[in-house]
Write a structure and sequence with these properties.
Residues 141-370 form the Sigma-54 factor interaction domain. The chain has 387 residues and is an alpha/beta fold. It folds into three domains: 2-120, Rossmann fold (3-Layer(aba) Sandwich), CATH 3.40.50; 139-308, 3-Layer(aba) Sandwich (Rossmann fold), CATH 3.40.50; 312-384, Helicase, Ruva Protein, domain 3 (Orthogonal Bundle), CATH 1.10.8. The protein has helices spanning 11-24, 36-45, 62-72, 87-95, 108-138, 146-158, 175-184, 206-211, 228-231, 247-259, 285-290, 296-302, 319-334, 343-351, 357-371, 378-384; strands at 2-7, 28-33, 50-54, 78-82, 100-103, 165-168, 193-197, 236-240, 261-263, 270-272, 276-281, 305-308, 340-341, 375-376. A five-stranded parallel sheet has the order 2-1-3-4-5, sandwiched between helices. The protein has a five-stranded parallel sheet with strand order 7-8-11-6-12. The chain starts with a strand and ends with a helix.
């Protein structure tokens, strides 16, 4: 059940807002505060999903309340309630972190759409934080080879900046891992990390996925929906397999890069976004440009820093460390004793042609852990990891 805090000194407005929200959805639980100080105390002690806050109030005005709440609970979306004379102030509050504002007297549809969008955004942020905790444990760059050391050094230099990075390399080399590390080591690490696999989304839906849409903009658009760029606001968006993105979507991404603005599908309203863009591809984008499949201006916007992730065949000296890492991780996941690999088994694995790169190596290690003996031998590798 979504809990909504209304901070409003006019009792009549509080009653109207409460009635609208509770009649709209039985899943909304509404709590009321009659002034800013009371609202802040409630926000300190409770985890609300959304706060509606008036601008002009006694004791403490809405701008002060918003500033305080963003320090206490920055993840809670705050929607400002503005009178006719407060519109300029309401717009300024969005620069301070307000999700949106609604005018008095509240328009039913405007209010409900804003509340739904804010709750959707909160859900995305919470889910991203949950995943981020897993990411910190599950993503680790393993290796001491010269090539992987160069990658690590570049990440250390680039991550704290706002520079865009284009990550290239074969499938399975760890481009996603590099993107996660760039975010984790950046000044945006406390913000969301939103990943979009451009190859997995049908071309007719990619714009809606990235930029959101308004109700009725196409068949199946039953309500307004925020896109990935909005969800990534204040953090990082990772556009994986960007070489598969349609030219039309590329044009809109270019605008987002140039102006820090997006428009939802079916809307002409600009939405300001503050995101760092990381992109990855296994394609030769310069060749794609020659074939008019990728925009050259977008390429130059994305490729401020070019980072090519080496294939596993180029860093065979890391295979022993990777095998040990995967063996420990997989054994824990499978609830099995950790198995070691003897020297001959490692040597044989180092001689293989790893066309599927690290992803393929992990699969082979998992197969050997499940099917091999107490210690993985050369014989096990020949039996269960033959190429």
């Amino acid at each position: 059940m979504a809990t909504i805090l209304i901070i409003e000194d006019e009792s009549a407005i509080r009653r109207v807002l409460t009635k609208i929200l509770t009649e709209e959805s039985k899943s909304y639980q509404v709590v009321e505060a009659s002034d800013g100080l009371e609202g802040i105390e409630l926000a300190k002690d409770n985890d609300y999903d959304l706060i509606l806050c008036d601008i002009k109030m006694p004791k403490m005005d809405g701008v002060e309340v918003l500033t305080a709440i963003k320090k206490i609970k920055p993840e809670i979306p705050v929607v400002m309630i503005s009178g006719h004379g407060d519109l300029d102030t309401a717009v300024n509050t969005m620069r301070l972190g307000a999700f949106d504002y609604i005018s008095k007297p509240p328009d039913l549809n405007r209010l409900l759409n804003t509340v739904r969008n804010a709750l959707d955004r909160k859900e995305l942020v919470v889910e991203n934080k949950r995943l981020k905790k897993k990411v910190s444990k599950n993503y680790e760059m393993v290796g001491e080879s010269e090539l992987i050391t160069i990658i690590k050094n570049i990440i250390e230099k680039v991550a704290p900046t706002e520079a865009r990075v284009l990550i290239t390399g074969e499938n399975g080399t760890g481009k996603e891992l590099v993107a996660h590390w760039l975010h984790e080591k950046s000044n945006r690490s406390n913000g969301p990390f939103i990943e979009v696999n451009c190859a997995a989304i049908p071309s007719e839906l990619i714009e809606s996925e990235l930029f959101g849409h308004v109700k009725g903009s196409f068949t199946g658009a039953n309500k307004d929906r925020a896109g990935k760029f909005e969800a990534a606001n204040g953090g990082t968006i990772f556009l994986d397999e960007i070489g598969d993105m349609s030219l039309n979507a590329q044009a809109k991404v270019l605008r987002a890069l140039q102006e820090n603005k997006i428009q939802r599908v079916g809307s002409d309203r600009d939405i300001k976004v503050d995101v760092r863009i990381l992109a990855a591809t296994n394609k030769n984008l310069k060749k794609e440009i020659e074939e008019n499949k990728f925009r050259e201006d977008l390429y130059h916007r994305l490729a401020v820093i070019l980072l090519n992730v080496p294939s596993l065949n180029e860093r065979r000296e890391d295979i022993a460390l990777l095998v040990e890492h995967f063996s420990n991780k997989i054994s824990t996941e499978q609830g099995m004793p950790v198995k070691s690999f003897d020297d001959k088994a490692i040597k044989l694995l180092q001689e293989y042609d790893w066309t599927g790169n690290i992803r393929e190596l992990r699969n082979v290690v998992e197969r050997l852990i499940i099917l091999g003996g107490k210690q993985i031998s050369e014989k096990d590798v020949k039996l269960f990891a033959s190429k």
